[in-house]
Design goal:
CATH architecture of the largest domain: Alpha-Beta Complex
Shape: globular
Strand order of the largest sheet: 1-6-5-4-3-2
Radius of gyration: 18 Å
CATH topology of the largest domain: Lambda Exonuclease, Chain A
Number of helices: 10
Structural class: alpha+beta
Strand content: 5-15%
Number of strands: 6
Order of helices and strands: HEHHHHHHEEEHHEEH
Oligomer: single chain
Number of domains: 2
Length: 257
């Protein structure tokens, strides 16, 4: 089974599929909008950036009313037979208070098991976010909630592309869908890369062939929101060339027509 992100890494070695210089969708072509809230994030976080990204994502969904926001890490806990402890953590997540964020960080430690298997597991009891990390997470979730208040509403979360996968890409899910755009949330310290923009394009093309295709018909933009930088990056779908769509569809995703 190969995910979208795994496929993007693999095409670096495949001549017919590898990205051209600058990328299939050059990040420099994205429109950029900065938001200001007067808050500076701490530069010192004591848990891994990838875990912070997961926590920000799932807490944002939870605060938007998604009662299934933590299903994936709960599934991971089941695999390593720690469902009871995971359930205790989940029961103590209520919002954006310090205790809730601390428990969310530990609970999301099971996500690696759900995504990559039991061998990736590191005991979640070793995850102890400090005050600076907790404050950063709270700020990023708050920014994300404000963002979707302005650019939403969110119509779909964690989008599965049933009917859109191929023999080459068998799984992968996008973050958010609003009436006008497909969004990925990134919490990296830098702007979008060619891998990020290709990921968005792949999700869009798979969405157009999936059982959710009706949601994709009226989309006008692909976008990335980075709550760490508090910046929105967007691309008008109409500006993506037909040749790019053809090459990515055929050689990256694996559609025959």
């Amino acid at each position: 089974m190969v995910s979208v992100t795994q496929r993007i890494q693999a095409i670096k070695k495949i001549d017919a599929a590898k990205q051209p210089k600058g990328g299939y969708v050059p990040p420099k072509t994205l429109n950029k909008k900065c938001f200001e809230d007067g808050i500076e994030l701490s530069l010192n976080e004591n848990i891994h950036p990838s875990l912070i990204g997961i926590v920000v994502d799932y807490l944002t969904r939870f605060c938007q009313g998604d009662d299934k926001a933590f299903v994936s890490p709960m599934n991971g806990a089941l695999v390593v037979k720690e469902l009871e402890y995971a359930s205790e953590l989940r029961s103590e997540i209520h919002g954006l208070d310090e205790e809730s964020i601390f428990n969310a960080c530990r609970l999301c430690g099971y996500e690696s098991v759900a995504r990559a298997g039991k061998h990736t597991y590191v005991p979640v009891q070793t995850i102890n976010p400090d005050d600076a990390t907790i404050k950063n997470i709270k700020t990023m979730v708050t920014r994300s909630l404000h963002f979707f208040e302005e650019y939403g509403p969110v119509s779909q979360e964690r989008i599965i592309f049933e009917g859109g996968y191929t023999d080459i890409i068998t799984n992968g899910d996008a973050d958010y869908l609003t009436p006008h755009a497909l969004w990925e949330m990134k919490v990296s310290k830098n702007g979008p890369t060619t891998e990020h923009t290709l990921q968005l394009l792949i999700y869009y093309l798979m969405g157009c062939r999936s059982k959710l295709k009706n949601y994709f018909v009226g989309l006008s933009e692909l976008g990335v929101f980075n709550p760490r930088l508090n910046i929105m990056y967007t691309l008008d779908i109409d500006t993506i060339g037909s040749e790019t769509i053809e090459v990515v569809s055929r050689h990256v995703i694996g559609y025959s027509n």
